[in-house]
Structures are given as structure tokens and as C-alpha cells.
């Protein structure tokens, strides 16, 4: 208890022995309220790096605007305040809403979902479903035009409606991305509450990354190897097991800071796991025109994640000018933006995989 809190309590005790309703009493009550308010505002002010509890001292190049030991309510409402985590929260929150919007748009294409939604709204779904389908086709055609326009035959697109590939692997990826982006936002918002919640939040953040990596494998592996179910099973089981093992390791009581490099190794191996099916796919589909487009998208994704990780690890630019990028422009915010760009590139590739499999069915392996 600090000095002013003590004063507030003593005044409260004095008031108990006074007759209620007196003007003195009212003045005292007002003063007490004012004091309490002043104490609370003071307590939830932003602090500098040197005033932080040890568990929050992570980036010595960000000097100010920290929230420390804030109650959950204050931490929640700080989503609308300016502090050094505001943009970390909002970059991934907007990314989450972007993926939510894309998921809903794509769900409109699934006849069962469109039909289910039409139970609620009579006129909207048909138009929405048509638009969504056209939007996605535009996206696909636009992307294809950038790389290999002449390879796109209109009759192939018409044939799309005939044999539809299952959509669930695509939505598994969308769900994984939304989970990762939302858990990251929540983590950045509430990590200032207490040491124990801080530890839990960052574990959940890592779980989100693991889930996003694992679910990212579903569209390419499922659609590329749709005609070879045994390869589908081997690759998807392999990456899922690796992901589950990583998550168990994160929550294991043996998981201490000493295991940091082991954890990093697990995340790297999840990413590198993709090299095996990628080489396999390239070897068996050397002549497929969509190979170039999807490779361009997936290379853009890999590059985004690599550049993002470079900023994350190097702590550039704040390391060059400590204190200059506290509120905006520090490495973690840049990392978040590259994560969204990487996920968007993968979304573009996933759309191409789905529509390609719709057209070619299971006559040949890509
Ligand atoms: Zn983050």
C-alpha cells in the first residue's frame, strides 16, 4: 500500500464516525474520490524501460511507453491507447479481420454454406455467392496474367464447375491463419498484466505460429497429391505430428529458457519440412504450367517470412536509434507486416491449387 492509498483509507475510517448527510461528509467523499482517481491514473501511466519489472525487459532499444502490471480491464481498453504495443496489436488484428473476410467470401462459394445462409437472408446469398466466385476467379486470372496468361484456356475455367475439389484443406489453412493472427493480437494486448499471464500469452503466441505453419501445409500437399492419397497421408501426418510435438514441448514443465534453442530448432524444422514435398512436387510436375505461378507465390511467401524474421532477430531499426521507434516503426511491427504479406502470398497460391484441382480433377498428379 502506498502513502496516498493509506491516506484515502484513513479518511474513509474518519467518515464512518460522522453523522451521515452532513456537508462536511460530502466534501470529504468528493476529496476521497478525487484522490483515489488520481492514484489510479498515476498507477496506470506508461513507464520507461528502466521502470519495467524484469520479466518485461525484452528489447532494450525501445525506451519508453510501456504498460506494466496493468489490470486486465485496463489492458483491454489500452487497445485504443497509444503505447509501444498498439501497432503490434492492430497489425495482426487487422490481418485477422482480413482473413475472416476472405474466409466468409470463399465460404459463399461452397453451395451447402450458401444454401445454409440463404435460410437467413433470401435475396443476398445468390448474388454474394456469384460475386465471391467471380472475385476469386478475377484474383486467379489476375495472378495468372502476371505470369503465364496464354496458358489459361477459358474452357478450362468453365470445366471448373464440373469436378469440384474438396474445400476443407483450404479452410483449415484459413482457420490456422486466423488463430495465429488473433492469438498474437491478444498476446500483445495482455502480456503487460502479470508475469504468469505474460508467460502463458507468449506460449499461446508460439502455439499460434506452430498452428499456422502446420495448417499452411494442408492446401499445397492435399491438392498436389490428391491423386496419391498415400503421399497426402505421409506428408500431412508428418507435419501434424511435428506440430503437436512442438506444442507439447512449449507447455511441458521441462520447457525452460534453456530449451530456447531446441524450440527454435523445432520451428525451423517445421518450415524446412516443406522442402521434401516441394522437391517431390516439382520433380513429378515439371511440365505443369501452374507450377511457375504457385512457385512464384510460395517464393514470395518464403521471402516475406525470411525478411520478417531478419527484422525480428536483428531488432533493426530501433537498435540504430534507441528510443526513436518506440511507438511506430520498430522491428516487431515490421515483422508482423511481413507475416501478413507471407500469409497473403500463401493464400494466393492456395486459391490457384484449389482452382487447378477443380479443372484437372484426378487425371494426373501435378
Ligand atoms: Zn508479435
Automatic annotation (TrEMBL):
Comp. bias intervals (Basic residues): 29-39
Topology of this chain in the membrane: Multi-pass membrane protein
GO biological process annotation, one example: response to hormone
Annotated positions binding Zn(2+): 188, 332, 336
Keywords linked to the UniProt accession: Membrane, Metal-binding, Transmembrane, Transmembrane helix, Zinc
Record GO cellular component, one term: membrane
Gene Ontology terms for molecular function: metal ion binding
Segments of this protein annotated with the region Disordered: 1-39
InterPro entries given in the database record: AdipoR/HlyIII-related
Cell compartments where the protein resides: Membrane
Transmembrane segments: 87-108, 170-192, 204-225, 231-252, 264-286, 292-313, 334-354
PANTHER family: ADIPOR/PROGESTIN RECEPTOR-RELATED, HEPTAHELICAL TRANSMEMBRANE PROTEIN 1
The protein's name: Heptahelical transmembrane protein 1-like
Organism: Nelumbo nucifera (Sacred lotus)
